[in-house]
Amino acid sequence: MTELTPVQRVPGTSRLIEVRISTPDADTAQALATDIVDRHLAACVQILGPITSIYSWKGETHQALEWLMLAKTTAEMFDDISELVTSQHPYDVPEVIAVTVRHVLDEYGAWVRDVVHGPDLDE
């Protein structure tokens, strides 16, 4: 479970993250992305691919084509996105990595927060 400071629990100040998720095919990526956005866990999910991944699995080096999802969201949504992905993903251990967004256009950040947390009632 992600520990959040009191400031991070306030929707207008929620820390923005990009969650990176790799999938074995475009159909899996599209299904996951649609579910994530429909549930308001992320404001936007971009799908890139195919990409080539070279990785170690069970002591052997493998190479595969994958599709990479980039979900724009807040830190509070990471656990929910992780649970959704692990429940629907075909991999035993799916890649689910969050990267903190250090700089963002104010209007874009407000839009992401509004989508995942609802409109800021103070505005």
Automatic annotation (TrEMBL):
One protein family per Pfam: CutA1
Source domain of life: Bacteria
Gene3D superfamilies (UniProt xref): 3.30.70.120
SUPFAM superfamilies, A to Z: GlnB-like (SSF54913)
Family: Belongs to the CutA family.
Name of the protein this chain belongs to: Divalent-cation tolerance protein CutA
Natural source organism: Ornithinimicrobium faecis
